[in-house]
Backbone:
């Protein structure tokens, strides 16, 4: 009954793993390239040795930075899979309505299959990011816990799921128009983030703050040292986590409500 959605999610995940493997292989080949040998004078040799010694200084980097990057990659997968109900509603609704399950159960199960693929995407992306670090950066990079690691990890894991729920919630009742939601959600949300940080007057800033309250990207912001994922000023970690959970529930509820009202 849900085999089609399973095949669709599996195919998308397989394509991602294939592309990620190719990119990882290229990065490993580049990193394994032999050193370039040049003839230098004594002064240059001393400076070169000093630079090499400085390069071996271990730098502590929170692993959440890489987990956040993996969350953004998983959000791309969420964008791809977010049209699942809209596709059923476009030429397949008559068949979907004959399935011996309630519409609520159908929505929940179909979304669960896609969410599983999104979670796996984030875990695979995170693992692939860590491989070259452990192989070639273990002398200069030391992964550290970071501030509020537990809550931040939960928040960054919720973000691609919330992103998927928002897309499904916005597109479930459409027929052949899910691509509009998928195509516009990134530029619109990124523009809202950029405008939120722009030096506008107080009145406009308040308006943009209100608009960004329904922008999932805001709640995925992460800042550590000089790294600022998404580019927006991070909000309270616990509040952001709760808001992303609200997006998940709201997206599922909106998708279910629309799906129960569509007519073949």
Residues:
């Amino acid at each position: 009954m849900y085999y089609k959605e399973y095949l669709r999610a599996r195919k998308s995940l397989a394509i991602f793993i294939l592309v990620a493997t190719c990119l990882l292989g290229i990065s490993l080949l580049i990193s394994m390239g032999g050193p370039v040998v040049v003839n230098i004078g004594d002064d240059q040799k001393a400076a070169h040795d000093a630079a090499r010694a400085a390069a071996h200084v271990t730098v502590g980097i929170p692993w959440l930075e890489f987990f956040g990057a993996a969350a953004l990659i998983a959000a791309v997968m969420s964008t791809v899979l977010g049209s699942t109900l809209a596709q059923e509603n476009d030429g397949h609704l008559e068949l979907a309505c004959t399935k011996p399950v309630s519409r609520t159960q159908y929505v929940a199960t179909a979304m669960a299959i896609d969410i599983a693929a999104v979670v796996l995407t984030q875990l695979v992306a995170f693992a692939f990011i860590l491989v070259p670090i452990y192989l070639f950066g273990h002398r200069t990079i030391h992964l550290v816990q970071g501030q509020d690691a537990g809550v931040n990890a939960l928040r960054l894991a919720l973000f691609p799921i919330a992103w998927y729920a928002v897309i499904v919630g916005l597109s479930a009742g459409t027929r052949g128009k899910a691509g509009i939601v998928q195509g516009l959600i990134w530029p619109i949300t990124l523009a809202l983030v950029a405008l939120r940080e722009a030096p506008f007057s107080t009145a406009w800033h308040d308006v943009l703050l209100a608009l960004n309250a329904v922008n999932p990207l805001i709640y995925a912001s992460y800042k550590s040292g000089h790294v600022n994922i998404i580019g927006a000023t991070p909000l309270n970690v616990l509040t952001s986590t709760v808001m992303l959970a609200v997006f998940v529930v709201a997206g599922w509820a909106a998708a279910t409500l629309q799906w129960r009202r569509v007519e073949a």
